[in-house]
């Protein structure tokens, strides 16, 4: 097939593994989106704060969505595929078979998900070491990173998992291995979740100090001793076996992966905003903050030199944009919290029935309901008496305190649809205030941010975007210079 400029079309497949689903997109060489497909993935919570997935289930979902987006396309014109995924921990044995990460011994469940908080005691001990690598994760390691999870496996599942394990992968690196047979890791995952330094490599003293000296003795072969920049071409490309699974030609290029938030950040932070009369036009890219908002929100800001922001992950060199340092703020549950609040409310069945009758999402229905009940007031004023503290799953940034819990004040005895809508609004506002706290911490440390670029599932919600603009715009700054741009990924 020839395009308008008569050059042969080339196609590329991007696969995005989020918390709740896998998505694939087919794009041409100009970056135009031609096809999209998604597929839900399984999730287990065998006990409170233990969250597990299956690498086989996720790979199968990657295959389903990839086959869908390339349907009807001449496979000779497909040039490459790349993966991004949540930063969950995948465990395989020495023959690359799944190993159980649970007391039940269910090897199907071989992934400890990013939001799993089982390793609380382990992360406390890691933080007590005050090792210098902790300076590069905001001063405090999160229970959501990989070192505490590895220590938990060694301490709690030594016989059934730790001793048998041959490979611990971040999920994005598992997917690129599955596609190519190459065990090289992406600099993105190792720097952001595993304490690897882009400049100095692994720090043996850290792993020895926390009791995981066996990883060092093994020359890091289980967690990665070949590291490539995101986007680098892996080995000989797609293996025949993976090609068959995915419905693609063998040998096409496969890129070293990215964590999902970093792929989103890379996708939006350099957006060409010319012609939209936005104040950020002509401003440096370092004045932009990419906010990737799905189950969680991740706040990605870049700088020319390292900036140490207490309670905000990083600074990470070249982990998202080559040559730039990255700081990553975050809120562990945002979309997940909205779903929890709305679905757990007594008026949810009524909401669902009304939304279905109008062929709307529950969020679109709630937004229109808020417009109805606000009367002459701006919608934000509906919550003068009701307030939410959103740290139901701890605070990732800037307080970096996993022990924090959520809170609602101003509840009444009524539980009708108006109450649900107002609770939903208060939750959206609380999340937006959380973003504001992160921006303030980043600015206090030296960032200068004037524009938020939102993407991910929550950016489909105009109320969520508007509240972020209103609440971060009141940050003592010239309101004219604050704006939120939305890009759907
Ligand atoms: N149409 C929509 N309107 C408003 N919010 C939505 C919509 N679709 C999804 N969401 C929100 O987005 C979240 C999921 O975002 P997504 O980017 O798909 O997550 P993940 O990458 O973590 O799987 C959900 O928790 C939900 O709150
Ligand atoms: O820790 C993260 C990135 O560093 C993400 O929060 C995690 O990967 C989950 O992402 P999502 O909310 O898009 O599913």
UniProtKB/TrEMBL annotation:
Q: Keyword Cytoplasm, does the record have it?
A: no
SUPFAM superfamilies according to UniProt: Actin-like ATPase domain
Chain ranges of the Carbohydrate kinase FGGY C-terminal domain: 289-473
One Pfam annotation reads FGGY_C
- Keyword Repeat on entry: no
Q: Which domain of life is it from?
A: Eukaryota
The Carbohydrate kinase FGGY N-terminal domain, residue ranges: 11-267
Question: GO molecular function terms here?
Answer: kinase activity
Q: Per UniProt, which keywords does this protein have?
A: Kinase, Transferase
Family under the similarity heading: Belongs to the FGGY kinase family.
Instruction: Give the protein's recorded name.
Output: FGGY carbohydrate kinase domain-containing protein isoform X5
Q: Which gene encodes it?
A: FGGY
